[in-house]
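step=encode ok
step=design start
structure_in=
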């Protein structure tokens, strides 16, 4: 049987007959692609250029942030056109969703689990950062594990536990916020996170029936994106 936790995550058992269909194929969100490309591809590349010229790297970073803010999708189009110049087709030669996960994995492994605030102001903030980082690391590591059923099932259990722990911590942070508007905003982010964790669970169940890896990749990217939105809401607080 499949076991579910509070985040809606299914942990498949040994019987694939227990896995029900999840319906239609996942539809990639443009906002997810745009955010992931900027955060996990463009920004790390710019950071790697800082030893050559920190000031120019800063200018370039600000330029990409500004143009993406005013023209959403610019970074994706920029990368896709670079690939086309090399006779690579992002739809046929490269699994873009898998690539984004692999890029996120490398970045999350190296990034510190800390936000731009004083955790002493709220003891749960640093805990949330650590749990979010752990979840994103496991999700972004899916391409390396999905071909090994045993390891992938273990990863699914780890994801389920990480989702539960993150939701518990988000609840603690939300309860500690005095501002009603900010509390409502974070609570909405939590609801969205739960919704997409359930979608991810459904895509996992479908994968064990039809081996649709891309749908799992798309949904994992969406869940990483939702995790980052929660962190942004908390950091803004």
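sequence_out=
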């Amino acid at each position: 049987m499949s076991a579910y936790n509070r985040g809606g995550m299914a942990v498949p058992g040994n019987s694939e007959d227990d896995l029900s269909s999840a319906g239609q194929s996942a539809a990639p969100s443009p906002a997810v692609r745009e955010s992931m490309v900027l955060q996990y591809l463009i920004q790390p590349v710019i950071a790697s250029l800082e030893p050559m010229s920190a000031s120019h790297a800063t200018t370039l970073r600000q330029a990409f942030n500004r143009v993406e803010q005013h023209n959403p999708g610019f970074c994706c189009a920029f990368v896709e056109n670079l690939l086309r110049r090399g006779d690579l087709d992002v739809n046929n030669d490269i699994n873009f969703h898998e690539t984004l996960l692999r890029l996120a994995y490398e970045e999350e492994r190296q990034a510190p689990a800390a936000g731009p605030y004083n955790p002493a102001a709220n003891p749960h903030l640093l805990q949330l950062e650590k749990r979010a980082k752990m979840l994103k690391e496991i999700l972004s590591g899916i391409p390396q594990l999905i071909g090994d059923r045993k390891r992938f099932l273990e990863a699914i259990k780890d994801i389920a536990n990480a989702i539960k722990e993150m939701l518990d911590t988000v609840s603690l942070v939300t309860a500690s916020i005095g501002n009603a508007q900010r509390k409502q905003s974070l609570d909405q982010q939590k609801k969205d996170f739960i919704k997409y964790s359930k979608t991810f669970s459904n895509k996992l169940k479908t994968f064990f029936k039809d081996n649709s890896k891309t749908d799992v990749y798309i949904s994992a990217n969406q869940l990483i994106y939702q995790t980052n939105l929660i962190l942004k809401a908390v950091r803004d607080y």
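step=design ok
step=annotate ok -> The radius of gyration is 19 Å.
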